[in-house]
Here is the input.
Amino acid sequence: MTTTTDLPSTQPAAPPPLGGVGFARWCWRQLTSMRIALILLFLLAIAAIPGSVLPQRGTDPIRVNEWIEGNPTWGPVLDRLGFFDVYAAPWFAAVYLLLFVSVIGCVLPRTRLHWRALRSQPPAAPRRLERMPEHRTWESTSSPDAVLDRAYEDLKSRRWRVARGDGWVSAEKGYWRETGNLLFHAALIALLIAVGYGALFGWRGNVIVREGSGFSDTLTQYDAWGGGRLVDPASLPPFAFTLEDFRVDFERGEAQRGAPRLFEADLTLWPTPGAPAEPAVVRVNEPLSIDGAKVFLVGHGYAPVLRLTDALGRVVHDEGVVFLPQDGNLTSTGVLKAPDATPSIGIEGLFLPTAAVDDVRGPHSTFPEADDPAVFLSAWAGDLGLDSGVPQSIYALDTEGMTQLGIEALRPGDSWALPGGNGTVEFVGLIRWASFQIAHDPGKEPALIASIVALAGLMMSLFIQRRRVWVRAAESGSGVTVVTVAGLARSDEADLAPEVDAVVDALKEGKGTA
Amino acid sequence: MTSASLAEWSNLAVYSSMLILIAALIAFAVSFAARGQRVMTPELVSVGAGSPTSEGAAGSHGASATGLAPGRRAGNIAMALTWLATGLLLMGLVLRGLWADRVPWGNMYEFSLAWTFGILAVFLVVSLRRDIRWLGLPVTFLALLSLGLAVTVLYTEAAQLVPALKSWWLVIHVASAIICGGAFTVAAAISSLYLWRDRAERKGRVTGIVASLPDAARLDTLAYRILAFAFPLWTFAVISGAIWAENAWGRYWGWDPKETWAFITWVIYAGYLHARATAGWRGRRAAYISLVGFVAFLINYFGVNIFVNSLHSYAGL
Here is the structure.
């Protein structure tokens, strides 16, 4: 799989010979042929398409489940075939691995050939230079040897690789083209290895932190965490931070009203246990690097502070409840579960930073900033189902086995006496939360280096031209020397005429025979 | 100057650019048709066929034989108009950037303006080195189409950027993608003309308008040169996008639809370069691949922004 034409890389498709070894060799030759490499390239492009059309588990597992539920016929079939995790599917891996085997099978022999070419002299000049695509012939009064000496010196001084033979000079340049070509393909293989290395040794976790709360980098503190097969979860860098303040700003002008303009998280950071605390700021596009891990700001929302007093008068909950945004204006939903209350209380809530109610959309938010905040609460009493052993989402209330007490809308400062003497809920105030992604990918620096080498190799292989130039000089019968200069492009687009002309000019200079 | 009037001046520049492009399109059409007739006259055919490397020479032969041929004059006018329209479009972009106080490619309207500027700029830069007036008709047509979509469907008021876009990478990553977009478009136009010309040549009937195109081999070479320039730049755009993604989203590659289609586009154009180096795939098949690559680029640009839920969906189109 290479980009120049000077080596035949397509074998005619002969029928496969009988016998194990012969057949294996035939398969290898087919696989490493340019035709198959091309087909594999296009297969790769086609195989990548479904992942951009169907929701993918890696980025949006909720929509995957919705899709499968919405398409009971095709959903499970596509799921089993890996269409919801295309880039980890065996058939996708098969295409790119075959492609890389094909690349290796082509690059290795070409490296050997190129190595040999780098250490050898340009081949002897062809006998009939006038058959070459670019050639000039003239008669000179100098002797053939003098002409050839001059050609040799001129080409050498212009950094051609030159060979001299009986009656000819042969020169070649542009070896870097093939070097770049091989470098490009080798760098792609290195890139694949770097990506794989990062997948094996890297990890990534997500956590939501409320203002005033803290996080320390251990597995149990993450809301979601995923690591490569060779990661030791006990070896996470032991930093900790608290979120002191989260600042946001939204567009208030007419155009793109409500679009975010500023996200900024002020942290107090302990880089290692016992280290002195230091202030730190995380912004979008400005992650925090600690000990090989990077802390990215990826999301934000509101956490209404709800104080719940139960029927016995005990305060069973008094902190911010994380509400998840449902739209761009931060209409958010959240759940408070108080299993220790008497009776057990569950509250579903809808939070609106700028509250509005209309007939079509019901309660909704009209702006993401908390200009006129309100919560709409629905309180339930009974068995929360937390003891059933089935894992529950903290953002959803399982109301089976519970009875609804009532619904109420609260503004900050309002409190609501739950019907039936089941206690009191007070909307104390409002804080924000920020979600962070914390990631460690040891493959990303090697991947970057491989990409840069690939780009450099690519440019060399496309912009450097490989050319040969020959000079022949022979005495004709009348004591006059017939000089012929010819050129041949060994790569596709070389502009030969100027090269040949340069040699001609050098030979004619100072001789007065022009 | 107040920001409101900056906005008006920007829009005015874009509309003027469109008007002048329409004039350029008409002039290119006149030039194209006239050249077709002129090349059909036998003595000029022989001149043109004898020197495939210097079309300008063939043109000047034609001019000296007949005075300044109408096609040639129309072509010159068209080129001048295209320069003017491109300058106005650049002015529209700069004013838009001054208005918004940032690079003028923060939403799809602005990206469309910049892409159109990329198309025209690639065309004009190539025209400095060789006579490509035959390409003016499709190029101005595509530029008008893109500008028309921009001002009707995609128009949005300028506004500040969402925090995710506030990065130097926006300048580098998007600028390289814009130039690539221009180059891919011009190359696709040439590849289409190649397929047309090539069919005529294989049938042995190079008459009429198709005769005013350069021969198929030259079209093939020109498309290759443009793509050989664009492919490393596209590679760079993808790499810089990956660096930015790592900085903003915490991973350098996440198969976001935009990333996926950038990858597909890259793979197809890689296939193009390989096809041109493979016996049996050169010429026609390579030209088809160039067109498929352009379709992938369009899907990445329009399709992903409008129809797919992507991290790259921002700023109200």
In short: Residues 1-110+132-138 of chain B form one domain.
